[in-house]
Each structure stands twice: as C-alpha cells, then as structure tokens.
Amino acid sequence: MAKFSLGRDEEESEAGPSSHSESPKHKKQKTSKEEVPKEDDDNDHLVRSGREGISISSSSISVTLVDPEVLDCSICMEPLTPPIFQCENGHIACSPCCTKLGNKCPSCSWPIGYNRCRAIEKVIESIEVSCQHARYGCKETFSYKQKLTHEETCIYAPCTCPVSDCTFLGSSEQLYLHFSSKHWASARRFQYNCPFSVSFDKDDSFLVFQGEEDGRLFLLNNQIELIGNAISVTCIGPSSVMGGFSYDLISRRGRSSLRLQSFTKSVKGQMESSLFVDFLMVPYDFSRCFGQLKLEVCIWSSRELE
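Above: the chain sequence. Below: its structure as tokens.
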C-alpha cells in the first residue's frame, strides 16, 4: 500500500519511520525524510494537516480542498479541463484562454499554449466530485472536467421564489411545492395548450402562472420601454427544460391585433432588467383600457404535441 503525505505541518516533526514497504505499482517519489507512522489498522491510514485531510485506502484517496479554486483557470475562472498548458515560468491556462490571449501568458508575457502541463491534467482526470447542488437533492458524482457541463443543466439547480418578500431558495420541484403551499393565491392557474385571458396594470413588472398539471411556474414579464410595454414569458426552472415550452401572446384592439409566438427561456427566478431577444411590443396608444393591459395567452407543452 502506498503512503501519501500532503501539506504536513507540525506532524512532520513528530512522525517516525514507517515499517511498511511500498508496492512497486504505487511507488511514489518521497519528498520528505520522514514518513507517516504505522497505525493500528494496516489497511487504512489517515494523514491530516492544518489544511487538508486525506483518507487513503487501497483503491482511492479522498481529499478535501480548502480552496477548490486552485483547480480553476486563473484567467477565465472556469474549471480546468485538458488540454492544459503552461509557460516557461510554470503559469497555467486552459486551451481557450491561450487562444484568446494570442498564446501570450498574461502573468509574465512568455509564450503559452505549446507545452502541456501533464501533471495537472492527470490530477484533473483522476478527480471525481459531487455536484454543488447536492444540498438541493442532486446525488450525481462525475469527473472534474464534467463539472461545468453537468451543473449548467442540473435539474436541482436552485431557483428563487418570485414573490418579492419571500427568501425561499431550492430546486425547481421544491419551489413548485413551496409556491403551491405558501403563495397559492399569487398565481394564475392554467392548462397547457388552452388559451386564457389576463388583465393587469401596465406598471406591473410580472405575473405568475402555474400549470395545473405539474405545478410548474411561468412568469409573464412586462418591461416598460419608451414606446410601450415589452412582454415575454419565461419558465422558472433549470436550463435543461429550455425549448420544452412555447407560447402565444395576442393583444387586440378592435379588428387589429399584435401577436408573438416564441419559446420560453429558462430562468432561476424573477426576470432581471434586461430584454430577451423575443418579446411582444404593445405600443402605449394601441391599448385603450385605462391603464390596463389585456392579453390572450397560451402556453404549449412539447410533450403534449408529440
């Protein structure tokens, strides 16, 4: 069994020589003259320091990093994934950053993007991590290089409650249950693929819709612009549901009408103050309802259309 020691402080001065021989398969170059003392259990050893804890078995090592950002690219701050490059002075960067910077190290101006940092690549490839959304219910573990891809679409990514004075934060499923329990009267219930009418003040920033079938939450976003109201529909939930729902918006005045057909965008909470690409612009002089906006809305579920 191999013995490893990382970041030892005071314990190095107290450690005595080990009586175990190293297996050729796992032989490591020693960086210290002192080794970890023999423990009562010959099959497991525990090495602790002021910064890291390492539990060693015959098959794997469990490591807790005090600063997980050491495994992120220092330029873009995204998780490092192979290929990883280093300059002559040892500064490392991910491949996309090397290209964007014209293969010039931002730390020392030496060329970068030609020499691979194999040691860091092997570390990255050997690490398995848990999803950062584990506290909200995700049980997935995956290699470190898959971390960003998984978490961008994780169905347990936390969402905030759209009610302004509510501080609830949880997965989308937890949010739907919370909203049904605590804010039932704050949403308009609807059925997928069935048109319904809504009326609201022109100054209202949003309305909440909740699906009767699945409890899913949608926002009718209303932004005030110079020429009128820009209206769109978003779905509160993980980005993995993007494209799963489409919607129709119709504003009528007599025999005239304005209409938008689009797909919902997934958001983690109440819409921020920026326009989406798709929206229905209702000019101020188009609606004559004494400060009210009247719309016909239909939200379509792709599951119902298959």
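The first strand starts at residue 45 and ends at 48.
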